[in-house]
Amino acid sequence: MSEMIKNALGREIPKYIEGIGELKAFQGAFVYTPEERKAAPRISKATPDMNKIVENIRRSLELCGIKDGMTLSFHHHFRNGDYLVNMVIHEVAKMGIKDITIAASSLQSVHEPLIEHIENGVVTGIETSGLRGKLGEAITRDGILKKPIIIRSHGGRPRAIEAGEVKIDIAFIAAPAADHYGNVNGVEGPTACGSMGYAMVDAEYANKVVVVTDYMVPYPASPISIPQTLVDYVVKVDKIGDPKGIVSGATRVTKNPLELLIAEKAFEAVVASGLVKEGFSFQAGTGGPSLAVAQFLREKMKAEEIKGSFVSGGITGHSVDMLEEGLFKTLLDVQCFDLKAVESIKHNPNHMEMSASFYANPHNKGCVANQLDIMIVSATEVDVDFNVNVITGSNGIIMGASGGHSDTAAGAKLSIVIAPLLRGRLPIVVDEVTTVITPGETIDAVVTERGIAVNPRRKDLEELFKAAGLDIMSIHDLKDVAEKLTGKPQKIQTTDEIVGLVEYRDGTIIDTIRRVK
Amino acid sequence: MKIEGIGQAGSLESNDLMIMVDLNQKENLIIEIESIVKEKFGEQIEAVIKETLTENGVGNGYIKVVDKGALDFAIRARLKTAIKRAEGRQ
């Protein structure tokens, strides 16, 4: 095994991994400065007589020159309703191609059939924001993947693509609607998913781009999210996804009293910070309590006639309501979560689509995350150094996603973690998180039903919270309250084998994921 | 016909557990634990079960636990009830 070094959080990181290369250890949220030039795809040529329509996925793979060892990219706007990843990899397998790396913006439980292709050597590398279900289990417990999986945030992925660290040979775009010349939008057709934000960077940097759709529109598609200038081929198939798995009917605010209590405390903390004022910006996850915090904010903004600047991230119908009520000037949308958001982005010019790079890439000339005032994030675990885990479960198995967690925590003026103190018997505040996704230096406070812990780096915030009479406790006291109820948790038994690398948004390695016994 | 020496208590709801106690097993003590938090609390659950068995004078038997993340007090209460039922006291 390669020589190990400790990164700034004391996590052991290998210096080199076969098939991946030299690794840089995480040194702090804003320490690493890139010096290279951006990568670029090959120059293309399109003559007027060229026809981009191809009869099937197999033919598109042949035309793109598919061969062993290539990297294929995918995006996850179709979430658990995606058919494309499985269709393409199935075809690749039938062609006898091996050693493929899948660079996906995220993978879901619908992608379980990949297990077979990994076992057969068709797929040997996976780079993604997250994994769920049996695929996560097979990779973390059975160690089936040849190279460690690389976990990247939503901002870290476009950074890695632009930096040429992820060299996409063929990008596959699951297009809700497309014309014969490759213009794509996400707002028409049976699988309308709204924003195409994650796919935009893939289309721009891949050597070959294949658009796959089940809904052809007359030329030119309108609006256009991914333009013809980037697209090589267009394939029409019967179905590219299951609308039921793509967007939910309506995202509801929680009625769970515990979640409401946590949300209320988080709302009080947000107000006490003094950041809720004319022109402020806001982002929250879509989990129950996060949405409830937004609901409380909405009432306050109405009552006090405060008008905010923008809401960003994954957008729900709830954010749309706030836009339509005039409470926020704009929505900046990388992914729509429900039908209302899809309808809104189609019709409302102030509901703007943004690319993943625009959203969260730390190595461009300024991402939206840097302009955020308030960010509410969730946590699977948070430790006494305020480091947050959202990727591995209590058993060490990959079951979540990095998402925009570390990006928005780093960018926002105030980033608040909200979580219940216990989930079942599991304490959420622990000595050391199983896997670090977001470093504690970018988290300002942790809000639980039992009390609020402020990061000691934010004395200013602690003063404001004290002045507002909030129940502040030290993070160690919060951990003790949890452990008094649950007992002290055992350490998960892992081997030395590294099955996953967690890349921080700047490309340095913040943690590894070990194979679970 | 009444089955003697077997008692059950609890549920499979989140934060609860189901315990089955069979006192017909005279030779030795067999404890089987299934738990959603086994990696983190398996040892502690076993310790609480053993402690509660001793406190209630149970030295031999077959104990089957299906745990959904119960805290210690719930484990003790469910086990005591299962023992009582197995002994025909309730």
Describe this structure in words.
The complex is a heterodimer of chains A (517) and B (90). By secondary structure, chain A is an alpha/beta fold. Chain A has 2 domains: 195 residues, 3-Layer(aba) Sandwich (Glutaconate Coenzyme A-transferase), CATH 3.40.1080; 235 residues, Glutaconate Coenzyme A-transferase (3-Layer(aba) Sandwich). Helix content of chain A is 26%, strand content 23%. Chain A has 15 helices and 29 strands. In chain A, the strands form 8 sheets. A 10-stranded mixed sheet of chain A has the order 5-14-13-10-6-7-8-9-28-29, with helices on both faces. In chain A, a hairpin with a 5-residue loop joins strand 11 and strand 12. In chain A, helix 8 crosses helix 9 and helix 10 crosses helix 11. Chain A is globular and about 70 Å long. With 90 residues, chain B is of the alpha+beta class. Chain B has a single domain, classed as Ribosomal Protein S5, domain 2 (2-Layer Sandwich). Chain B is 37% helix and 28% strand. In chain B, helix 1 packs across helix 2. At the A-B interface, loops of A face helix 1 of B.
